[in-house]
Specification:
243 residues; mainly alpha; 79% helix
Length: 243
């Protein structure tokens, strides 16, 4: 009885530490200097005042902040307001990709062995690792395509999978292009709207972001080819038992 009660408490313990970590992260975002990463007005004003150093400073800040787990969407919107659509997309993509690689390497170096030992008997995680190992580029592109994906968390989680660094980097860069181009479009059109310009482009950019968000949800889940043999085998076993 005592052993079973300990096992029942284990999931609650995991949820407790997860909630505690999330609360600590939110506190850092609100009360520490890191809160400026979520202040678009401050970011735009700061980078506009850096002149020729604005682009390298932006890429450096994006790389460091995303490597440490902070989201880069507000930075991406600010880059559109500061650098324009083309260069803003380029600099934000570069910073986001380098930051994602940094988080990937942190997880791969510091947590990969621990995760293998801790979850080596977890069947669900084994299936995930196997699927990613077989089609890594497809999984990376799909995850990067939508704003619904928790970008910062995914960066660390990919570091715990068998995907190699080259595939991860290329897939991340290519997969982020639609999303980060839209973020920068929001920055450009939002700046124009605030200055009294046409608000229709801003509405179109917002609509595009919404479309990228809901598009994965509209796709109906289809049974995988591997599922059919499993069903057939189950039917054969059931029929043999009845006989």
């Amino acid at each position: 009885m005592r052993f079973s009660s300990i096992r029942l408490r284990q999931p609650y313990k995991s949820w407790f530490y997860t909630a505690l970590g999330l609360a600590a992260f939110i506190a850092v975002c609100i009360f520490s200097p890191a809160r400026v990463l979520f202040d678009e007005t401050f970011l735009v004003h700061t980078f506009n005042g850096l002149g020729v150093y604005a682009a390298p400073a932006f890429v450096l800040l994006s790389t460091i902040s995303i490597s440490l787990g902070f989201p880069g969407n507000v930075l991406a919107v600010a880059s559109g307001a500061v650098f324009g659509f083309v260069w803003g997309t380029i600099w934000s993509l570069l910073g986001a990709t380098l930051g994602a690689v940094g988080a990937f390497l942190i997880a791969r170096i510091l947590l990969h062995r621990w995760a293998e030992k801790r979850f080596q008997h977890n069947a669900w995680l084994r299936r995930i690792n196997q699927a990613i190992g077989e089609h890594p580029m497809i999984y990376i592109l799909l995850v990067r395509f939508t704003p619904l994906s928790p970008f910062s968390l995914v960066n660390f989680l990919f570091g715990l999978t068998p995907v190699d660094l080259k595939t991860y980097t290329i897939g991340t860069f290519l997969g982020l292009i639609p999303l980060y181009a839209t973020y920068n479009w929001l920055g450009v059109t939002g700046k124009q709207a605030l200055q009294g310009g046409d608000r229709i482009p801003f509405a179109l950019a917002l609509g595009t972001l919404t479309l990228l968000t809901v598009l994965p949800l509209l796709k109906k889940k289809k049974p995988t080819p591997a599922a059919e043999p499993e069903r057939s085998l189950s039917r054969v076993k059931a029929d043999s038992l009845h006989e």
